[in-house]
Amino acid sequence: MWKYILNRLLISIPILLCVTFLVFVLLNVVPGDPVALMMKEKVSADVVARVRAQMHLDDPWIIRYFRFLWGLLHGDLGTSYKLQRSVTDLILQAFPRTMVLAFSAALVSWIVGIPAGILSAIRQYSVTDYFFMGFSLAGVSMPVFWSALLFQYVFALKLGWLPVAGFYGWRYVIMPAIVLGWSSAGLIARLTRSSLLDVMRNDYIRTARSKGARELAVITGHALKNALLPVVTIMAIQVASLLSGAVITESVFGIPGVGRVAVDAIKSRDMPLLQGSVLFATILVILGNLVADILYSLLDPRIRLEK
Fold first, then answer.
1. In the chain, N or C: fewer CB atoms in 10 Å?
2. Confidence band (pLDDT; 50, 70, 90) for 260?
3. Per residue in 194-248, pLDDT tens?
4. Cα 8 from Cα 6, distance rounded (Å)
5. By CB neighbour count within 10 A (0-12 exposed, 13-18 middle, 19+ buried), where does 241 fall?
6. In a domain? residue 74
7. Domain that holds residue 132
């Protein structure tokens, strides 16, 4: 297994290089001057030229790209144009808030999605099945910004149960975690249902039933373990995506996380900060896929990662 993990980490290096190169090129193609955006008041052309020279923005883009890679090899993601702070420090400062939101949303999606998918599969084409699948379809189909605004209007403005926005305690996490987890729960519920229905048609399930095993024992002891294999992949990727920054949710609820940092970097054309955010998100997605493959081998002994 360690050999497989090492190979996957080595393969991820060219992927990270491609991501950084594409982001760097796209940021240089997009019109707009980061120096002009930083300076709110009108200044002379000499001042703008002097600032651009200090920030090395007049250098050819290929030189700036290799300078970024050289700093990356030394653990330095650069300095934010707008905030004049280390990009690494800014991302690490925002990451704990995103981590709390991500794991809270993932917990909501797992607690709701997996039982809903199991009940729908057991009671296929029943009222329970239609209810949970309709609920999951609404979660998948409804845009996150719309459900966030709807929750804010109902539970914060009308009922006054929860705060509208901010990040000052556990009460501020409940509503964004439910909003973000609802969309993930819908996907997990539908995948759990379809996977469990497919497994329940196998011969070994009929054999277990013919031996007199109870239906609950057949589902939990035989069917569910194999049915969760594709679900585990989605769960690991979802956690990695949430950790990389729930951009819309953090923006609507005013949570200063990694997603909010990336949005602010886009607005101000803060190239070092945006590059660092994208690179951080890519690393988390790669690690999420790696964790999913390892869990595959633990859930199904037939899978050998070395092969």
1. C
2. confident
3. 888 888 887 777 777 777 777 777 777 777 777 877 787 788 777 877 776 678 8
4. 5
5. middle
6. no
7. 87-299
Spatial CA neighbour of 77 closest among 245, 69, 28: 69
Q: Is the pLDDT of residue 20 over 60?
A: yes
Contact 145, 252 (CB under 8 A): yes
Reduce the DSSP state of residue 86 to 3 states and report it. strand
* Percentage of residues in the chain having pLDDT higher than 70: 88
Torsion angle, CA of 261/265/267/268, rounded to 10 degrees? 130
Within the chain, where are the H helices? 2-29, 34-38, 45-54, 61-73, 87-122, 127-141, 144-151, 171-199, 203-210, 215-218, 224-243, 247-252, 258-267, 271-299
What is the amino acid identity at position 297? S
Q: Determine the residue type at 218.
A: V
Q: What does the pLDDT read at residue 288?
A: 78
Tell me: the pLDDT tens digits for 52-81?
A: 777 777 777 788 888 888 888 887 888 887
CB of 8 within 8 A of CB of 259?
Answer: no
Note whether residue 100 is domain-resident. Answer: yes
Q: Residue 295: what pLDDT?
A: 73
Question: In the chain, how many domains are there?
Answer: 1
Give the dihedral of Cα atoms 103, 108, 113, 116; nearest 10 deg: 160
Nearest to 247 by CA among 271, 269, 267: 267
Cβ neighbourhood burial of 11 (10 Å; 0-12, 13-18, 19+)? exposed
The reply to whether 48 falls in a domain is no
User: Are 81 and 39 spatial neighbours (Cβ–Cβ below 8 Å)?
Assistant: no
CATH number for position 128: 1.10.3720.10
Question: Both tokens of residue 219?
Answer: 């589902």
Structure tokens given for 57? 């923005």
In a domain, 79, yes or no: no
